[in-house]
Recover the amino acids of this structure.
């Protein structure tokens, strides 16, 4: 709750609204990234996932990897408008530590979602990349709801 207060996200619904907006934008970013993927982009994305995997128990370091992962996918999309919209919605990465903290508390693993997205992009399968990104954001929404239930003993 402290982290969320710091970010001016006062209600669970505000965080969920941000995630729904991300789902709308990032599904298309993932699709475009898969369609436009170059070998060097895939190598960079793989290195980010490897780093995130090493930071599995450190949600703050993992948050940095999370931001890099999503920012690189946005860059790979080659759509500057969607990339800017994603930056705005993600509040320049400020929510990644919050979401990392929540996922750690509910014992959920963000890296496995990122691996699925990476796999689809590496195989240059836009439909699969979109589906993997949607699943990832829906998992985040599920984790936020679970966390709020646990915190509020609902």
């Amino acid at each position: 709750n402290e982290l969320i207060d710091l970010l001016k996200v006062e209600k669970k619904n505000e965080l969920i609204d941000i995630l729904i907006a991300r789902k709308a934008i990032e599904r298309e970013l993932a699709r475009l990234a898969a369609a436009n993927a170059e070998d060097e982009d895939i190598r960079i994305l793989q290195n980010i996932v490897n780093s995130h995997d090493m930071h599995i128990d450190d949600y703050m370091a993992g948050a940095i990897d999370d931001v890099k992962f999503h920012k690189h996918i946005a860059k790979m999309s080659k759509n500057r408008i969607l990339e800017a919209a994603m930056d705005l919605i993600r509040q320049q990465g400020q929510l990644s530590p919050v979401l990392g903290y929540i996922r750690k508390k509910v014992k959920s693993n963000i890296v496995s979602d990122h691996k699925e997205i990476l796999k689809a992009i590496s195989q240059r399968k836009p439909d699969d990349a979109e589906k993997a990104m949607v699943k990832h954001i829906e998992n985040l929404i599920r984790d936020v709801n679970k966390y709020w239930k646990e915190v509020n003993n609902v």
